[in-house]
Amino acid sequence: MKLSVIVITKNESAHIGDCLDSVAFADEIVVLDSGSTDDTREIARTRGARVEVSPDWPGFGPQKNRVLDLAAGDWVLSIDADERVTPELAQAIQRAIAAPDAEGYRIARLSNFCGRWIRHSGWWPDYVVRLFRREAGRFTDVPVHEHVEVRGETATLHGGHFLHYPYASLEALVDKLNRYSTEAARAAFDRGRRTGPLGPIGHGAWTFVRIYLLRRGFLDGWQGLVLAGMAAAGSFFRYAKLYWRIRQSGQP
């Protein structure tokens, strides 16, 4: 069974080398870049990756389906540039595809925020479906918060996990929060979802309570407080932007 690793990139020179080094055991690595202005593509090529460039940016789901269509392996491992495969996970992946008992596998992910590994706040074990038989899996066709849909049984892969380095700084988190809330509000509006003027406040407050108290974010130190506050802000802005779109459209 051959394994293809797929990655989408844009200006990921700080991450892409370590990311691809961690998946050197794969039979094929395919990178789809969407207009990097740094040396992301050159670094990827030095790691033996096949690098393609897309003419536009259709959103995360469609872009990941594009790179999926370029893969040739029997099995596919989708990884983000800010993630790493541990040696234990590499062994577990190889065992799974050698003797599979499912069409897709959930993999745990451990994330680092401002120097701390986050083990609460709803961030751990943060299972994501990333390993799947190529002909059985497809990403949801949405601009943000995409995920793999597998035709057939999905199991949990035991042994190892992804290491995730999602934010280089608080500024990067704020920038992502702004971009994602805009995309999420647009998608929600297109689906016909509606909210009132108090919706942003209610959703933001509940998000903070859920993450900081119910999911024990307070055990993650000051980083947990920041994450809960940022998540609450993201929820607030998502619904505020949705409400703004509703008002601009003149719909009730």
Overview of the molecule:
With 252 residues, the protein is an alpha/beta fold. The protein folds into two domains: 3-164, Spore Coat Polysaccharide Biosynthesis Protein SpsA, Chain A, CATH 3.90.550.10; 170-249, no CATH class. It is 40% helix and 21% strand. The protein has seven helices and 13 strands. It has helices spanning 16-21, 40-46, 60-70, 87-98, 170-190, 199-214, 221-249; strands at 3-9, 28-33, 50-53, 75-78, 83-85, 104-107, 109-113, 116-118, 128-133, 137-139, 148-150, 154-156, 162-164. Strands 3-2-1-4-9-6-12 form a seven-stranded mixed sheet, with helices on both faces. The protein has a four-stranded mixed sheet with strand order 5-13-7-8. A two-stranded antiparallel sheet has the order 10-11. A hairpin with a 2-residue loop joins strand 7 and strand 8. Helix 5 packs parallel to helix 7 and helix 6 packs antiparallel against helix 7. The longest helix is centred in the C-terminal third of the chain and has 29 residues, at 221-249. It is globular. The mean pLDDT is 96.
Query: Regarding quaternary structure, how should these chains be classified?
Result: single chain
The low-pLDDT segments are none
CATH topology category name of the largest domain? Spore Coat Polysaccharide Biosynthesis Protein SpsA, Chain A
CATH architecture of the largest domain: Alpha-Beta Complex
Largest sheet: 7 strands, mixed
How many E strands? 13
Radius of gyration: 19 Å
Percent strand equals 15-25%
Structural category is: alpha/beta
Count, helices: 7
CATH H-tier superfamily of the largest domain: Spore Coat Polysaccharide Biosynthesis Protein SpsA, Chain A
**What overall form do the CA principal axes indicate?**
globular
First-last Cα distance: 55 Å
